[in-house]
Amino acid sequence: MKSRSNRRPKNAAQTAPSRSRLGNGFALLSRARQQAVLSVAKPAPLAASVTAFLSPAVVLQLLLFVAPMLIIAGYSVLSRGAYGGVESPWTIENYQRLLDPLYGVILLRSVWLAAVSTLLCLVLGFPLALFIARSGRRKNFYLQLVIMPFWTSFLIRTYAWLFLLRDTGLLNTVLQATGMISEPLPLLYNDGAVVLGLVYGYLPFMVLPLYATLERLDPSLLEAAADLGATPWVALWRIVLPLCRPGILAGAILVFIPCLGAYLTPDLMGGGKTIMIGNLVQNQFTTARDWPFGSAISLALMALVMLLLMGAARRKGLEGEGEPLL
């Protein structure tokens, strides 16, 4: 009897903590349910605020990008009016005209000049970006010098090159005054002048991405290469250039695309002798007043650029690089 009476209080003492633990478990479960309900209820006003914040940007994209693209696409399948403009019937003749060898030559010339300009920008911009990245305290000053040409209109800077390179310009005048030449050199209105104008205009677009990549380069890698016996040129070729590939690709894209569609520089510095695809589009919308054909050329050029970008992005993905393309 005593043993039974002694066991009962012990069992009661053991069941009390278990009940308290069970109650605590129910309390935690109820709190978790409340937090889940609150977490489900909170995103609604958050989503509404995000939508309200992004809606102006979406509206601007629709008005300034999507709507003009739809208009250009509609124009490209219409016919040229008798006095310009567009009219029915619907036709794909404008795209068939792109198969003319004449326009193929213009496209190839545009791609060639854009590629040469991009390569020259890379050759000139890489040493400059490397110099700025290693300038220490003065790097901000040198960056301002790179950006400074943007403070002046691109048209004014192009006209400045006209005054420098024309037959009676500064360069020919100095060369004739020193007796180095007897007649003015043909420095304007050729492919070389167009490439010069493109390189001058878009060189900063190559320097800035390269600088951003070179600035993050760990100097200890070059020190380790030097300790292992690598010469500066070997370290540049085997270490610096591979690590700068994202900056090189970004700079090439930023330079090649505007050079491919340029029309102001070829028009002014080419003098009508160097016709690029941008000049062809501008001529169709102004002089020829053939808006459907100009629209078809514009869409074809945009499709070509998109294919090039997709190819670059796919190659970057196959190489396993995790950083974004731009």
In short:
The protein has 326 residues and is mainly α.
Considering the chains and any ligands shown, give keywords for the structure:
single chain, 326 residues, mainly alpha, MetI-like fold, 2 domains, two-stranded antiparallel ribbon, 14 helices
CATH-assigned fold name of the largest domain: MetI-like fold
What coarse outline follows from CA principal-axis ratios? Answer: globular
Category by helix and strand content: mainly alpha
- Rg on CA atoms, Å: 33 Å
Compressed to H and E, one letter per element, the order equals HHEEHHHHHHHHHHHH
Uncertain parts: 1-10
Structural domains: how many: 2
Helix tally equals 14
Quick one: how many beta strands? 2
Residue fraction in strands:
under 5%
Assigned CATH architecture of the largest domain: Orthogonal Bundle
Helix content: over 70%
The CATH top-level class label of the largest domain = Mainly Alpha
Main beta sheet: 2 strands, antiparallel
How widely separated are the two ends? 87 Å
Calculate the mean pLDDT score and round it. 83
The CATH superfamily label of the largest domain reads: MetI-like
Arrangement of strands in the largest sheet: 1-2
Structure report:
The protein is mostly helical and 326 residues long. It has two domains: 28-63; 99-318, MetI-like (MetI-like fold, Orthogonal Bundle). Helix content is 75%, strand content 1%. The chain contains 14 helices and two strands, in the order ααββαααααααααααα. The chain has helices spanning 2-41, 43-76, 93-96, 101-133, 139-147, 154-165, 170-177, 191-215, 219-227, 232-243, 245-260, 264-269, 277-285, 291-318; strands at 79-80, 86-87. It has a two-stranded antiparallel ribbon. β1 (79-80) and β2 form a beta hairpin. The longest helix has 40 residues, at 2-41. It is globular, with a radius of gyration of 33 Å. It starts with a helix and ends in an 8-residue tail after the last helix.
